[in-house]
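Morning run. Coffee first, then this:
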Amino acid sequence: MQTEPFISDTGSLRLRWETRNEVTPGTGIFRVTLHSDVSGRALVLAVDARGVGRDTTYVNEDPRPFFLAVESANLDWTLAAEEGVAATALRQDQRRVEGR
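And here it is:
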């Protein structure tokens, strides 16, 4: 199956996935490929997993419209694609305290 196209303004994506309910141990497969929605070509095999599990995968590409193609067999799965945003976290000793 493939997702609806989506636009990534940064090209940085976080893919969180989980597989469960494997029919027969050792037979479940889960693959997620990131495609360009402009050309349709496969850009990155982001997930290639067997069996029950969960993980987070980070993908960096040029900003553009994408879609995800998911191949699976013998298991249930969930997948979330989120846009990455650049940020800087301050260390505890750098945080400014404001008062009245």
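The chain has a mean pLDDT of 91. Good start to the day.
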